[in-house]
Amino acid sequence: MAKDKPQISSLDPVWDRIKEDAHAAIAAEPLIGGMVHATILHHGSLESALAYRFAFKLSSSEMTGQLMREISEEAYSEDPTLGEAARADLVAIFERDPACHRLMQPLLFFKGFQAVQAYRIGHWLWTHSRKDLAYFIQARVSEIFGIDIHPSAKIGKGLMIDHAHSIVIGETAAVGDNVSMLHSVTLGGTGKEDDDRHPKIGDGVLIGAGAKVLGNIRVGDCSRIAAGSVVLQEVPPCKTVAGVPAKIVGEAGCDQPSLTMDQILNGFVAD
Question: What order do you get walking across the sheet with 167-169 strand by strand?
Answer without folding.
Answer: 147-149, 167-169, 186-188, 212-214, 230-231
